Amino acid sequence: MNPFQQQAAIPGVAKIIAVGSGKGGVGKSTVSVNLAVALRDRGLKVGLLDADIYGPSLPRMLGALNQRPEVGENQKIQPISRYGIKTMSLGYLVDENQAAVWRGPMLFKAMDQFFRDVEWGELDYLVIDLPPGTGDVGLTMAQKVPVHGALLVCTPQNVALADAKKAIDMFERTNVPLMGVVENMAYLNGPGGEKIQLFPRGELDGFLDVKKIPKLAQIPFYPEIGLSSEAGVPVSESHSGDEQAEVFNQLAARVVAATQI
Questions:
Q1: Rounded CA separation 205/23 (Å)
Q2: Which of 30, 56, 70, 152 is the most exposed, fewest CB within 10 Å of its CB?
Q3: Residue 7 and residue 146 in contact, taking contact as beta carbons nearer than 8 Å
Q4: Dihedral (C-alpha) 173, 175, 178, 184: value to the nearest 10 degrees?
């Protein structure tokens, strides 16, 4: 039996967007959070699922470390609402310092519960923040639910591109449509207006050209992004209307355009 024939839509969820990366530390969760806020700003109903079981970061980035979800009368888990977005994370269920020492079957069960046992309600978009790499969680997602598009977050240097290629291969093998790549921390705006390269420029642009994969956004290194995340307020919320938020607004517009049927 084809494992992808087991896919079943989440009731009430119109479109699912996955945000992945080949390696950690490239800003995948930052992109996920701010994309969700930017989609909300377009008048859309948005959910955000932290699928990084081993390293959930969304509760801290959303300022919700001490919140615990309740179980409704229908035995469904009620998502935590932050900034008008319905969110769920293993980080809401376990202490931040507690490790999830789980093997594959436990991951499969956790993901299925996030999909089926959470009261997501009516959503235009559910954004799934995947863990880095090409492991069990991404495969489980592709088998369990229809994903309408994926974003890959990558930094400019070749060491990041090498891992990004593996993630792209995973999406291709699991029949998840790749909408494009987000280049994060692309450069730092210098005091004189010059662009300072924080990482050596690799072969990302050439690779994308050959593969005909669009670059959906090029995000500079904004110190405000990290500061806002540490404060538990996404930069798209704290700097709404500023250039730091505008790059995510443009990304949201491209995601909506790419997922129209």
A1: 18
A2: 70
A3: yes
A4: -50
3-state secondary structure of 23: coil
Strands (E) across 70-201 are located at 80-82, 85-89, 123-129, 149-154, 178-184, 188-189, 195-196
155-181 as b/e: b if 16+ CB within 10 A? bbbeebbebbeebbebbeebebebbbb
Distance CA 214, CA 233 (A): 29
Residue 190 makes CB contacts below 8 A (sequence gap 6+) with: 196
Whether the pTM exceeds 0.90: the reply is: yes
120-148 pLDDT, tens digit each: 999 999 999 998 877 788 888 999 999 99
List the structure tokens of 236.
Answer: 């798209």
| Closest by Cα among 103, 121, 109, 172 to 142 | 172
Instruction: Delineate the domains of the chain, giving CATH numbers in brackets.
Output: 3-258 (3.40.50.300)
